Amino acid sequence: MNRIIPTLTFIIVVLSSYSQNVPNGGFDSWQTEDFFVAEDWVSYGQTLRTEDAKIGNYAITLNNYKNSEGDFVSSSLYNVDWQGGGVDKFPYDGNPLSMVFYAKYDLAPGDSAELTSGFYEKGNWIGDATIKITGNSGNQYITYSVPIQWYTISKTPDSVYIGMTSISHGGNAEGTGYISIDDFRFENIGHRTVEINNYDFENWVNEGVVYPDGWVSLDLLAFNFWGGFLKNPSVVQTDQPFRGANSLTIQNFESWGAPDRGLCFTGTDDEDAWGPAFKVDKKYKYLQGYYKYTNGGGDSAEVSLNMFVNGNYLGDGRIRFGATTEEWKFFSIPVNYYLDVTPDSATIRLFSAIDGSTKSINTVFQIDELEFVDELSNTVGITETVSDDFILSPNPFSNIVTFKCEGGVYSIFNTQGQLVKNGSLNNGENSLQLSSLNSGLYYIKIKDYNDRQWQKKIIKQ
To answer: pLDDT tens, 216-270?
Structure first.
C-alpha cells in the first residue's frame, strides 16, 4: 500500500464566514437516545425502567412485544452475564426461607412470567425457589412469597443466582403483555435477610446511544431496529475538534469476532443514507471538511455524497483516505452533476473503512467542519499530497507533464479552485498536453482505478 505524505501547503486567506449548509456540519450538537439499564443486572429485550413503583422512585418492567419481524417476543433480567461479562451472581450469606417481591402484571392468555432464585455454596447448587405467574394483577402490585427448597442441611449459601423472564416457555409469546417487579428480597419468617445488589431497582445507568444531531449512526440503527448495542461504539463524540466544541469520530468495531466498519450519515432513518436527507438550494461545486485518520492496517475511510432533485439522483462525489494523519487535514470533493439543474436536497455518508474489506479494529476516522462551497477559496488552506513512488515531471513545465499511474482520472484546478481541465488516464505512462493553460500556478488531482488519490502543485511557465 502506498504511503501518502504531506509535502506542501499553501494558504488562501478568507474574509467570509463559514456557512452551515450541512446539518450540524461542525458536529457541535449531539443527542442521546436514552436507554436506562438496572445497575448490577443484565437485561435482554424490552426490560425497562418504570416510575410506576410500589416503593421508591422506580421499578423494573419486562415486556412481551412485537419485534420488527412481527413476532411476539419476551424480555428477561439476570444477575449473570451469559456473554462472559463482569456480572456473575450476587454474593449472599443470609439464612432465607422465602423469595419475596412485589409484582404488577398483565399477560396475554397462554403466557406466564417466571422468577427463579438459585443458591450456591462453594460452587454447588444447594437450594432454589421458582414461581410462574399468569393473568393480570388488577392494575395493582401484589406481594408474592415463594418458599425456598433446600437440598442440603446446612442452608449456608455464599452466592445467589436470580433470573426473571416475561414468558416461562420456549419460543415466542402469545401476545403483548408485561410484568413489573419491585423490592426483590429474601426473608426468614417475615424478617428481611441480607439485601442483594440493587434489590429495589432504584439505581440505573443510562447506556443510551449518543449521536450527532441531524445524523444517523450505525449504533442508533442497531438500537432502534434490534434493541441492542454494538460491542464497542462506532460513533463517538470527540472534544478535540478542528474548530468549535466537538467533532465526530467514526471507528471500526468488533462484530462476531471480526472488525467491521463504522458508519454515520445525514438524516433521521436508514432510508436517508441513499435518499434525500436535507435541503439544499444551490448547485454547489464542492463538499469540504477536515479529517484525521488512524489506519489500523489495510483500511480506507470514505466520504461520499449524492445530490437530488424531486427525489431523483442528480449528482455525486466521493473521496477515500488511506494514510494515517495525526494532524487535522483539509479535504475537498468536487460534486459531479449529471445534468445542469439546481438540486433541492442531498445526503452525505461517512465510513471508517470500506464495506467488505475492513481490516483492523484499531482504525479511527475523525471529521469536522463539513460544508458545501462554490469555490475552494472559501477554505483556510489546501494541502498537497503525493505518494513516495509518484513522480511528475517536468515541474515547472512548458507544455507537457508526464507521470505513471494505474489508470483513472485527473482534474486540474487554478488557485481559485476552478476546474480548468480534466480527463481519463492510461494504465502506465501518461503525457498530458497542457499548452492551452496560461502561465501560473495550478494543482492537479489524480485518482487511479484503485481509488488512491494524489494532489500536486504544478507551475506552467
So the answer is: 999 888 887 766 677 788 899 998 898 888 999 999 998 878 899 999 999 999 9
Statement to judge: residues 189 and 45 lie in one domain: yes
Q: What is the CATH number of the domain that holds 402?
A: 2.60.40.3110
C-alpha triplet 60, 66, 67: angle, nearest 5°: 100
Q: Nearest Cα to 371, choosing from 16, 20, 28, 13?
A: 20
Q: What is the pLDDT of residues 45-97, one digit of tens each?
A: 889 999 999 999 999 999 999 887 889 999 999 999 876 666 789 999 999 99
Residues of the domain holding 236: 4-32+208-385
The CATH number of the domain where 334 resides is what?
Answer: 2.60.120.890
Last residue of a domain, one of 361, 385, 409: 385
Task: Evaluate the CA torsion angle 146, 150, 156, 161 in order and state its sign.
Answer: negative
3-state secondary structure of 230: coil
- Clarify whether residues 362 and 405 are in a common domain: no
How many residues are there in the chain?
Answer: 461
Q: Peptide bond before 259: cis, by omega within 30 degrees of 0? A: no
Rounded to whole angstroms, the Cα distance separating 325 from 346 reads 28
Distances (CA, A) of 183 to 82, 101, 168, 280, 457: 24, 6, 21, 55, 71
Whole-model pTM over 0.85: no
CB 70 within 8 A of CB 117: no
Same structural domain, 330 and 419: no
